[in-house]
Amino acid sequence: MLLQANNLSCVREDRTLFEHLTFAVTAGDLVQIEGPNGVGKTSLLRLLTGLSQPFAGEVCWNGEEIRRCRDEYHANLLYLGHQPGVKATLTPLENLAFYQKLHGSGSSDVDLWQVLAQVGLAGFEDYPAGQLSAGQQRRVALARLWLSDQPALWILDEPFTAIDKQGVKVLERLFLTHAERGGMVVLTTHQDLTLMQGRLKTLSLTPLLQE
Ligand SMILES: Nc1ncnc2c1ncn2[C@@H]1O[C@H](COP(=O)(O)OP(=O)(O)OP(=O)(O)O)[C@@H](O)[C@H]1O
């Protein structure tokens, strides 16, 4: 598995956020995109997922531009955006069952109660998700990562937002295990990560001086 950003440039509202950005992410890599607020981290993740198009350059999956291998790329990609993306009227269990169906057969024998216990939601399985705290809602979204049964690319925008210290450690351990199994994680965070520290590659975005 190989994700490549080749000579990427991103322009928003006539402002160049970054240009000539080239890097590769391969099996076992844990990559943190870092930089100050507004520098373009989310914009970069959206380019990597194919949700938006670069001003110049290309994103390739296993050597092929992602537009040309869209289905195969998306089958290998799990993207969690800024918002938790949890249905407020459904319970955590129902949300997770929905994701499971969406994923297809691969994760159908995963015990959803066990997954919810792993993300610290034991006892909250049957509450409407909209009545849970911000951190608990984020945990419902993150529970999807436990459904991913194959090495895959996880692109995660601020996954630790509203998550307590213990929860961050649980996630760090999950990311390390995922990488050991040959998976790849590209994430943004403003948090200092402890468990992943020695394993983490960082890509720093710096504000460009505008003409
Ligand atoms: N929907 C949008 N339409 C137009 N411009 C946008 C939009 N979203 C973001 N931008 C511009 O792109 C810039 C980069 O935004 P982005 O969300 O990628 O930054 P970020 O590095 O992820 O920031 P943060 O650390 O605050 O999450 C912003 O400063 C803003 O000027």
TrEMBL record:
GO molecular function, one term: ATP hydrolysis activity
GO biological process, one term: cytochrome complex assembly
Record Gene3D superfamilies: P-loop containing nucleotide triphosphate hydrolases (3.40.50.300)
Amino-acid biosynthesis is among the record's keywords: no
KW Membrane (keyword) present: yes
UniProt keyword annotations, A-Z: ATP-binding, Cytochrome c-type biogenesis, Membrane, Nucleotide-binding, Translocase, Transport
SMART domains: AAA
Domain of life: Bacteria
ABC transporter domain mapped to chain residues: 3-211
Alphabetical list of SUPFAM superfamilies matching this protein: P-loop containing nucleoside triphosphate hydrolases (SSF52540)
InterPro entries named in the record: AAA+_ATPase (IPR003593), ABC_transporter-like_ATP-bd (IPR003439), ABC_transporter-like_CS (IPR017871), ABC_transptr_haem_export_CcmA (IPR005895), P-loop_NTPase (IPR027417)
Protein name: Heme ABC transporter ATP-binding protein CcmA
Organism name: Aeromonas lusitana
